[in-house]
């Protein structure tokens, strides 16, 4: 790599040189030549007679200072430097851009003929020259001029004017009264179907709600609308936060790099995160849509009203907003299921990121391309850090902290420290040590030892924090560890101890700490890190009997699930260790599983989670060098064993339980457990052909897809027929076809790679669409370890070939799918060589994007 892009450092932060109160934008839209006029007053914060503005790929056609043409300027790389200016002046710049040629899906681009924008993080500079940084806050007026064939011309805030123009054009003028940074700017123009509703806020104001979808998709918008109304109500009730504009718009587009974007008053969504009906969307999709609609809505306060000072502070808005959307889902649905979901995301993706070359603290200190830092660390670990504060301060303390945060910082661009200070000051808590979570990367490991002294009735827990060796060791951390002690009958022992908060949380602050409990009359069973109270790994010598005891008796569904996960992990490890020995599921575990079915929990969806084993990535965390084949075999073998042990009870449940196809929690849970059952039964000698065919012809997508997944996973003789039929039935609906692409990408059979290559030619596939790429190639690299890590290197080559093509076309998307290649150091020598060869090859391609450069450079050097 010859070219070295510049990194930016948190420590180098400088406040902006100028302030801008207001910006006036005019867009004259045209696919090849959109003319953007920006007019704004700049006021210097210092003596400077010059100013530097951000701008990328812009054609500058006019520049005026105080209304007069100005020639003292220079365009260097991505900066416009204007000299000879007074300390306060009005700038007017006119630039031209070509949305039609913009395949990066950043800035102003076309999605299936509709204009739309994506400005976060630094995309506004692809639209006009401005201070494209989050700490320059201005009010915006935006005039959008477009052809009459684009009936909707949208931007942030309230519509203040509209009218007809000559040449078959019209215009609409928008005004956003709230100051915002440029990354929250949005513009959309196109022809849509529109779903409308209203929401009455707690203070009695009517807010107009609008969801814009592609023509013909109106029947798939109601779920998002319901989700939006639920979000607005929930934020009033739980956080006392009311919406602030008179209108809230959501636009669904097919070409989008991420899930959705919280632009003020005008959210832009990936259509996959909006559109749903029972025939096309699974129960999981319904859930995800609700949580993403919530997430973007919650940003209105945590992100928009109070925003980030600089991009290193991204977790200020993302960690907090993920925490809020998780709480929203938990309050509306099952808390345990949502917790299991969040923990799985951490263990599957975040622990791996923290152990790989892209490891960074939730507040990164060095960034080349900001788009690379919209990560599971910033988002999900960020949310866990917020959750730990919630655990330490309690709901009341946390809400007092939120209240103070808004009192102090509404309308400002602030730092993660400002947030923690509000929490500390509102509650009188010292969070100085806790702040280390923001600067320390890596997953802490808690080594636990216990001792019981019968004569004294004393139970001792010793916990040691272990942190991966690193440059700037800032340990120990402040860690809340929730525990539960169970007696031999499985009854919870009351914890009386001066250092226990809320009857269950002990606080670690030292590298090693001992907690002694008195008056314990028999040796208890210890439940550790209950509810995943801290994002840590745990090392404690549990016996099978202890874990079974927890799985049977712990007072929370989460703790039972966790105990089962550990039992499965132990079994897998044994199998990996002694592959030649015949593998049998332990009697104790079999008995626990059977008894779980005999005394089913109220929520059957929890039971489905109880019998789901940890995935490849989660299990990999337990190995310094990942034993690919052995681990894949062990996973298959454990599933076979579970299937055989549970065959009768699963058959009985599958045959004996009906659901009505509704979206009620009860029906959703039945479908979850029935699909899990079918998945396992397909692995046994039971004849599942009829069940597979029946479910596959269902008009409910959850059932339909459940059948296909079971057939594909078990390599059932019906799979081809079912897959072909699905293609014929759904090739008119690309979002549905993504499920079909993903199923084939996850297929463990050796023909998988050839199949993927031929699917590139499928009429529905399109490399320029991130959803298609993620469904087919993303799923392959992330969720098909057996084929991705093939010993002939064909899996690595497939991924690298596609990344080469995407490097120029869509750098963000290319950079997102490269992740599985980066952690080559975790594999055996042969695989390391093959993976590294692909990274070397990628590192030398011409015009390597900054996005890819940053990741490849970190991995290789
Ligand atoms: N802020 C968005 C969210 O979390 C994330 C996002 C959407 C984004 N589109 C993006 C981030 C493009 C970077 C680039 O809701
Ligand atoms: Zn977000």
TrEMBL record:
Its EC number is 3.4.11.2. Residues 22-184 form the Aminopeptidase N-like N-terminal domain. The keyword Metal-binding applies. Its cofactor is Zn(2+). It catalyses: Release of an N-terminal amino acid, Xaa-|-Yaa- from a peptide, amide or arylamide. Xaa is preferably Ala, but may be most amino acids including Pro (slow action). When a terminal hydrophobic residue is followed by a prolyl residue, the two may be released as an intact Xaa-Pro dipeptide. It comes from the Bacteria. It holds the Pfam family DUF3458. Residues 442-541 form the Peptidase M1 alanyl aminopeptidase Ig-like fold domain. Keywords: Aminopeptidase, Hydrolase, Metal-binding, Metalloprotease, Protease, Zinc. Residues 545-861 form the Peptidase M1 alanyl aminopeptidase C-terminal domain. Aminopeptidase N is involved in the degradation of intracellular peptides generated by protein breakdown during normal growth as well as in response to nutrient starvation. Belongs to the peptidase M1 family. This is Aminopeptidase N. It comes from Pseudoalteromonas luteoviolacea NCIMB 1942.
């Amino acid at each position: 790599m010859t070219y070295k892009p510049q990194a930016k450092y948190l420590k180098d932060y400088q406040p902006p040189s100028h302030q801008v109160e207001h910006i006036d934008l005019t867009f004259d839209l045209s696919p090849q030549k959109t003319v953007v006029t920006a007019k704004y007053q700049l006021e210097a914060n210092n003596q400077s007679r010059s100013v530097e503005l951000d701008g990328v790929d812009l054609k500058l056609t006019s520049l005026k200072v105080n209304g007069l043409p100005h020639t003292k300027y220079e365009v260097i790389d991505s900066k416009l430097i204007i000299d000879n200016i007074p300390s306060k002046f009005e700038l007017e710049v006119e630039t031209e851009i070509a949305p039609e040629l913009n395949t990066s899906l950043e800035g102003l681009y076309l999605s299936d003929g509709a204009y739309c924008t994506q400005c976060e993080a630094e995309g506004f500079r692809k639209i006009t020259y401005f201070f494209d940084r989050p700490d320059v806050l201005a009010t915006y007026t935006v005039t959008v001029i477009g052809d009459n064939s684009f009936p909707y011309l949208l931007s942030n805030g309230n519509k203040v004017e509209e009218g007809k123009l000559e040449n078959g054009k019209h215009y609409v003028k928008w005004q956003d009264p709230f100051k915002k940074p440029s990354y929250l700017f949005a513009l959309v123009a196109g022809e849509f179907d529109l779903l409308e509703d209203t929401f009455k806020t707690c203070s009695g104001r009517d807010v107009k709600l609008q969801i814009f979808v592609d023509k013909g998709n109106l029947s798939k918008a109601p779920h998002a609308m319901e989700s939006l109304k639920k979000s607005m109500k929930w934020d009033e009730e739980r956080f006392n936060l009311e919406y602030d504009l008179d209108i809230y718009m959501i636009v669904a587009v097919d070409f989008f790099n991420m899930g959705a974007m919280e632009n003020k008053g005008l959210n832009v969504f990936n259509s996959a995160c909006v559109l749903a009906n029972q025939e096309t969307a699974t129960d999981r999709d319904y859930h995800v849509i609700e949580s993403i609609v919530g997430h973007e809505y919650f940003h209105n306060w945590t992100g928009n009203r109070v925003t980030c000072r600089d991009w290193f502070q991204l977790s200020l808005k993302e960690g907090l907003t993920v925490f809020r959307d998780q709480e929203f889902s938990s309050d509306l649905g099952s808390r345990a299921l949502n917790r299991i979901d969040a923990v799985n995301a951490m263990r599957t993706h975040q622990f791996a990121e923290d152990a790989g070359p892209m490891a960074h603290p939730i507040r990164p200190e060095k960034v080349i391309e900001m788009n690379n830092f919209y990560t599971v660390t910033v988002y999900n670990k960020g949310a866990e850090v917020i959750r730990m504060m919630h655990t330490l301060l309690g709901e009341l303390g946390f809400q007092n902290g939120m209240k103070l945060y808004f009192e102090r910082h509404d309308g400002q661009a602030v730092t993660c420290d400002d947030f923690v200070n509000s929490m500390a000051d509102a509650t009188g808590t010292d969070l100085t040590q806790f702040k280390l979570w923001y600067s320390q990367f890596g997953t802490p490991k808690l080594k636990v030892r216990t001792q019981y002294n019968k004569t004294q009735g004393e139970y001792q827990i010793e916990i040691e924090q272990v942190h991966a060796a690193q440059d700037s060791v800032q340990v120990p951390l402040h860690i809340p560890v929730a525990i539960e002690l169970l007696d031999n009958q499985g009854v919870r022992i009351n914890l009386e101890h001066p250092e226990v908060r809320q009857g269950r949380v002990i606080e670690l602050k030292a590298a090693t700490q001992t907690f002694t409990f008195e008056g314990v009359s028999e040796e208890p069973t210890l439940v550790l890190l209950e509810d995943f109270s801290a994002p840590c790994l745990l090392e404690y010598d549990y016996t099978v009997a202890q874990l079974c005891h927890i799985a049977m008796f712990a007072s929370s569904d989460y703790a039972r699930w966790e105990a089962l996960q550990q039992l499965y992990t132990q079994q897998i490890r044994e199998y990996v260790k002694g592959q030649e020995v015949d593998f049998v599921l332990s009697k104790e575990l079999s008995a626990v599983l059977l008894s779980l079915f005999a005394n089913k929990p109220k929520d059957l969806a929890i039971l489905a989670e109880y019998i789901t084993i940890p995935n490849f990535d989660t299990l990999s965390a337990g190995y310094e060098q990942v034993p690919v084949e052995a681990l894949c075999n062990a996973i298959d073998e454990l599933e076979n064993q579970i299937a055989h042990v549970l065959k009768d009870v699963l058959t009985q449940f599958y045959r004996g339980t009906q659901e009505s196809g509704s979206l009620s929690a009860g029906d959703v849970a039945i479908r979850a457990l029935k699909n899990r059952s079918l998945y396992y039964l397909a692995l046994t000698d039971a004849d599942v052909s009829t069940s597979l065919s029946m479910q596959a012809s269902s008009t409910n997508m959850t059932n339909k897809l459940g059948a296909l997944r079971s057939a594909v996973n078990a390599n059932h003789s019906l799979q081809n027929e079912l897959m072909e039929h699905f293609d014929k039935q759904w090739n008119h609906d690309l979002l549905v076809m993504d499920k079909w692409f993903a199923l084939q990408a996850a297929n463990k059979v050796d023909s998988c790679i050839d199949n993927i290559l031929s699917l590139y030619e499928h009429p529905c596939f399109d490399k320029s669409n991130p959803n298609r790429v993620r469904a087919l190639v993303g799923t392959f690299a992330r969720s098909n370890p057996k084929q991705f890590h093939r010993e002939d290197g064909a899996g690595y080559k497939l991924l690298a070939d596609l990344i080469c093509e995407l490097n120029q076309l869509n750098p963000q998307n290319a950079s997102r799918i490269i992740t599985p290649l980066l952690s080559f150091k975790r594999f055996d020598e042969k695989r390391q060589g093959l993976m590294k060869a692909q990274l070397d090859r990628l590192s030398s391609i011409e015009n390597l994007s900054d996005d890819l450069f940053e990741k490849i450079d970190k991995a290789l050097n």
